[in-house]
Design goal:
By secondary structure, the protein is mostly helical. The chain has helices at 5-35, 41-60, 95-152, 157-179.
């Protein structure tokens, strides 16, 4: 059965409404993802489609040297310690005297290492406490922000409703065009 001109116009208008409605809904989803700093679905599609070309490009181009400059501060501790000990002693001193000199110097080095360890532990606990407090504050702020975002509905409910309504009207017009 051939469609009349009126039926084709109504079907075309219905299809147009459906396309615009779906576009509004996708636009809203994209806006929500951007607002929440999530990878948007459009970006995901682009990454998937360009990944093979990117890998090919990385294989073809020559590697180049890169310089990375880091700014900031950090605190790290290592389990290894290297020390150089130079001992000047009289060659004609008796063995007992030499051993006593070595013991005193080792005791002094042990005392210095203990002081360094105590200071490092103090710094570690102070910085660790401050870091834990900052991380706790950040978690609380994120939780409050998520609550606000959830309460506000993240975006325009009217835009989603308009998109849904256009899809429904478009579908109704498309079905109605079959009866014309």
């Amino acid at each position: 059965m051939a469609l009349s001109t009126t039926a084709r116009i109504v079907a075309s208008i219905g299809g147009g409404f459906q396309i615009v409605g779906v576009a509004f809904v996708f636009w809203e989803i994209w806006g929500i993802q951007r607002l929440l700093n999530k990878r948007t679905w459009t970006r995901s599609i682009v990454v998937v489609l360009t990944a093979p070309f990117r890998r090919l490009w990385l294989r073809v181009r020559r590697p180049e040297a890169r310089t990375v400059a880091l700014e900031g501060s950090s605190l790290s501790f290592s389990g290894n310690l290297r020390a150089r000990l130079t001992i000047n002693e009289a060659e004609d001193a008796p063995i007992e005297r030499r051993i006593e000199i070595h013991r005193r110097r080792l005791d002094a080095i042990d005392k210095q290492l203990e002081e360094i360890r105590v200071e490092a532990m103090k710094l570690r606990t102070d910085l660790g406490d401050r870091l834990d407090a900052a991380a706790g504050d950040a978690r609380e702020q994120i939780a409050r922000l998520r609550e606000v975002v959830d309460q506000l509905g993240v975006g325009s409910i009217r835009l989603r409703a308009l998109g849904g309504a256009l899809v429904l009207v478009g579908s109704a017009l498309w079905v109605w065009s079959e009866w014309l």
